[in-house]
Amino acid sequence: MTTTIPDLPAPAPHPSDGLAGLEAREISAWFGEHKVLDRVSLNMRAGEVTALIGPSGCGKSTFLRILNRMHELVPGASLAGEVLLAGQDIYAPGRRLTDARHQIGMVFQKPNPFPAMSIYDNVTSGLKLTGTRMRRADRDDLVEECLTKAGLWNEVNDRLRQPGGALSGGQQQRLCIARSLAVRPRVLLMDEPCSALDPTSTRRIEETIAELVREVTIVIVTHNMQQAARVSDRCAFFLAAHRTPGVIVEHGPTKAMFESPRDSRTADYVHGRF
Ligand code: ADP
Ligand code: MG
């Protein structure tokens, strides 16, 4: 798994180095005939945490999947609109699906490390997909760096060869974050990353998010309003009225969304009156 590759030149800087924002323009989405998002536009600024909030079924996960071209893999799914990463449309003709995936990482609600694969190999697993070849020593450094950023290094550095599946749920989620970071994404999408975790693990992930946002733009879906208030710079409130597709009712700085929302539905939602 970790064969030494001698005397290769140092890897070129990844083209995704540096902060980049993500902008969704007029995104509509369908599953077959069922329209689930209607012309949703949102600017997710570089170096910020944007929280997507709103009741179940209003299209938050679908929107997130559109941001890294996972939606198009769902049979029968379609979409309209543009997603600009650092000003470039990831859906433009000629842009490769894999480029978007490497630059825009995703962490899911249920931690999904490769359970039988070692902690070390979980972290480096994305490098094979990106075709990145590294010297053993550089790869060791990368594993330490990514596990440190994910807040997991101190807990696992003496057992990197143990399977990822042997870790606790919170540790597995942090391993998934480390795995995402190894390909040096510019954006990290997180779909309810703490919903399956205990309060202590949740805190650890929130601390990790606060550190990571210095170098990776973050978009997080959360149903936990305290969490949205703690971790995000801006919020977007999604809503799908009965039998209508999801829209963004209101978005803005988190403090304003919580303390002085313009729309009464936002006030009701963030204060738990929905
Ligand atoms: P949220 O994440 O806000 O709960 P989703 O994006 O998961 O919302 O779902 C939005 C709508 O799209 C819902 O009506 C849901 O039933 C529908 N939907 C989601 N995924 C699929 C799918 N794979 N096939 C068909 N409909 C789907
Ligand atoms: Mg969802």
TrEMBL record:
<keyword id="KW-0813">Transport</keyword>
<protein>
    <submittedName>
        <fullName>Phosphate ABC transporter ATP-binding protein (PhoT family)</fullName>
    </submittedName>
</protein>
<dbReference type="InterPro" id="IPR005670">
    <property type="entry name" value="PstB-like"/>
</dbReference>
<dbReference type="GO" id="GO:0016887">
    <property type="term" value="F:ATP hydrolysis activity"/>
</dbReference>
<dbReference type="Pfam" id="PF00005">
    <property type="entry name" value="ABC_tran"/>
</dbReference>
<keyword id="KW-0067">ATP-binding</keyword>
<dbReference type="GO" id="GO:0005524">
    <property type="term" value="F:ATP binding"/>
</dbReference>
<keyword id="KW-1278">Translocase</keyword>
<keyword id="KW-0547">Nucleotide-binding</keyword>
<dbReference type="GO" id="GO:0035435">
    <property type="term" value="P:phosphate ion transmembrane transport"/>
</dbReference>
<dbReference type="GO" id="GO:0005315">
    <property type="term" value="F:phosphate transmembrane transporter activity"/>
</dbReference>
<dbReference type="InterPro" id="IPR003593">
    <property type="entry name" value="AAA+_ATPase"/>
</dbReference>
<dbReference type="GO" id="GO:0016020">
    <property type="term" value="C:membrane"/>
</dbReference>
<dbReference type="InterPro" id="IPR017871">
    <property type="entry name" value="ABC_transporter-like_CS"/>
</dbReference>
<dbReference type="InterPro" id="IPR027417">
    <property type="entry name" value="P-loop_NTPase"/>
</dbReference>
<feature type="domain" description="ABC transporter">
    <location>
        <begin position="22"/>
        <end position="270"/>
    </location>
</feature>
<dbReference type="InterPro" id="IPR003439">
    <property type="entry name" value="ABC_transporter-like_ATP-bd"/>
</dbReference>
